[in-house]
Design a protein that fits this description.
The strands form 2 sheets. Strands 1-8-3-6 form a 4-stranded antiparallel β-sheet, with no helix packed on it. The protein is mainly beta. The two termini are about 30 Å apart.
C-alpha cells in the first residue's frame, strides 16, 4: 500500500475534471492535426468528426481557440491554454461536423484526438 501525503488535493498536475468515461480502444482513438499556418485564421480539420466520437482531446504547444461544427472567430470558440491537454464531450449540430482551430501564433499545430465512450 502506497500512502502519499499531499497538502493540497488533488496533487499538482492532476485535474479531476479531466477524468472522463472515454476509452482508449482499438478503432476508437483516431487523431488528426490542424496546422494554423497564419495568425488568427480559422482552419478546419481535413475530415469530419467520426460518428462514433463522444469526446475530443485537444492539445497544442501554443494558445489556441477551438470550435466544433463552425468556424472559429473572435467571438466563437473555446480558448485553450498552451501545453495543456483538454478533453471535452461533443455533440453534433447542424454544422460541418469538423473541428476548427486558430492560434495567435503562426505555425501552431493543434492535435485533436477523437474518443469513444
Amino acid at each position: 500500500c502506497l500512502i502519499m501525503d499531499y497538502e493540497v488535493w488533488p496533487p499538482q498536475g492532476v485535474d479531476l475534471q479531466r477524468v472522463t468515461a472515454a476509452k482508449l480502444q482499438l478503432g476508437s482513438q483516431t487523431r488528426i492535426t490542424i496546422t494554423c499556418v497564419n495568425v488568427s485564421t480559422d482552419y478546419a480539420g481535413a475530415t469530419a468528426i467520426p460518428a462514433w466520437a463522444r469526446y475530443i482531446m485537444v492539445y497544442a504547444a501554443n494558445d489556441f481557440i477551438v470550435a466544433v461544427d463552425e468556424a472559429t472567430t473572435a467571438a466563437i470558440g473555446a480558448a485553450m491554454p498552451a501545453a495543456t491537454p483538454q478533453v471535452f464531450p461533443i455533440a453534433f449540430g447542424s454544422g460541418d461536423s469538423k473541428v476548427h482551430a486558430q492560434s495567435p501564433v503562426a505555425g501552431t499545430i493543434v492535435n485533436v484526438s477523437y474518443l469513444r465512450d
